TrEMBL record:
This is Membrane protein. Keywords: Electron transport, Membrane, Respiratory chain, Transmembrane, Transmembrane helix, Transport. GO terms for molecular function: cytochrome-c oxidase activity; heme binding. It comes from the Bacteria. One of its GO terms (cellular component) is membrane. One of its GO terms (biological process) is aerobic respiration.
Amino acid sequence: MSPFLSFFNKIDPQVETKPKVALSEVDHEMRLPVLLFTISGILWLLIGTFFAIVASFKMHSPELLANFEPLTFGRVRSAHLNAMTYGWANNAVFAVGLWIMARLCKAHIRYASMLIIAGVFWNIGVTIGIIGILTGGLTSVEWLEMPPQVGPLLAFSYVLIGMWGILMFRFRERGHVYVSQWYILGALFWFPWLYVVAITMIFLEPARGTIQALTNWWFGHNVLGLWYTPMGLAAIYYLLPKVLGRPIYSYYLSLLGFWSLALFYNWAGVHHLIGGPIPVWLISAGIVASVMMVIPVVVTAINHHMSAVGNARAVWQSPTLRFIVFGAMSYTLASFFGSWMALRSVNVVTHFTQFTIGHAHHGVYAFFTMTMFGGIYFMMPRILEREWPSAMLIKVHFWCAAIGIGMMLVALHVGGWIQGMDLNNPDIPFFSPDSSARTILGALKPWLFSRSISGILLTIAHIAFFVNFALMLIGPRAVRYKEGPTLLAAERKGA
C-alpha cells in the first residue's frame, strides 16, 4: 500500500470501533497542547496590555516616549492590535476551542504533535511579526500590519491546527453533533479562507483601487464575526449548560442562530466604507446584512437567557459563569450597536471617531476575551488536576476587568459621539492656540484620559490573572474533577 493510501486508511474512523473515552482521559491527553497555547496566550496578553497602555497615554500625552522610535504611536498601536489579536486571542481560541472539540468528540487524541508544532511556529511567527512592526517593517493595512513575509509561516501553522480539528471530528463518537461543534468547525473553515484571500489580494497579487479597501474591511470585520465570534459562542454554548447542569434551552434556536450568522455576517463589514468611492449597491447590501444580524443575535440571546434563567445565584458563585454571562450579554449589546452603526444617519456621526474604536473593544474584549477568561477558568483545573490557588485574585481579575472595560466603553462611545458631532460642525475647529476656545481635540481629551484610567484597571486584572495562573502551574496536584452533579461544587471552590 502506498504511503498516501496508508495515511488515509489511518484517518478513516470506520476501521476501528472503540468505546467513548472518559473526559478525564481527554483532558490528560490534551494537556501539553493546551498548556502551550494557554501559556503563550497569557504572555501575549501581558505584552499587548503594555503596548495598549503606552498607546492610550500617547493619545492625550503625545510627548510620552516621543524620542524612542520603536514606541512611537503608529508602531505601538499596531503592535498592540497584533499582539492581542494573533498572540492572545488566537492562542486562547486554539486552547479553549480545540479542548472543547476534543471533549465533545469523546475520542482518544491523535496527532497531538501537530498542535505542538503548530503552536511553536505560530508564536515564532507572531514574535517575528511584532518585532517587524516595532522596527518599522509594518504595513499600512489594519489587522494585517505584520510584515507580509510572516504570512506563510502563520498559514502553515494554522493548516496544521485546522487539519487536527477536522481529524478530531472525524474520529468523534458517532451520533449527535453538538452546537459548539458547529461553531468550531465553521470557524476552522472560515478563518483560512479569510486570511489567504486577504494576503493574496492585498500583498501577493494586489487588487486594484478600492478593491483593496473592500478586501481589508471584509477581512478585518469577518475575523471578528466569523472567527472570534463563533469560537466565543461555542465556549458559551458548552460551558453555560455544563456548569449549570442543565441542557441548552433550544437546539433549534441554536440551528437558526448559526446559519443566520453564517449567511449575514460576511457582508456586514462593507458598511464601514459608507461615503467612500464604492458602488452604492454594495454599500446598501452591507447595511442590509448588518441590520439582518439582529436575527442571530436575538435568537442567541434568547437561548442563553432561557438557559440561565432562575440560576442567578449559581452564576455569581461560579468564576466561570461570571465571565461567560458577562461575555454573552456583551455579545448581544455589541451586536445591536453594530447594526445601529450601519445606518447611514448614524454612521455619518460615528465614522472616523473613537466610537468605532469603542465598538471594536466591545466585541473583542467585553465579549470574546471575557468569554475566553471563563473558558480558561473552567478548563485549567481539569487539565492540571488542581484548584485555582487564590479566590481573591479571581475576584480582582473579574471586577477590575468588568469595571475597566465598562469604563472604557463609556469613555469611547460618549467621547466618540461628541467627537463625531463636533466633526460635522464647521464652526468648531479641530485645534486652536486659544486655550479658552472649544475645539474637537479639547472636548475629546478628558474621555481619552478616562480611557487610560480604564486601561490601568485592565492591567491590574491581567496581572492578577497571570499571577494566579503561575501559582496554579507550580501548585500541588489535587483530586481529579468529576463531571456531573458535583461540577458546580467544584466550581465554587475556585470562587
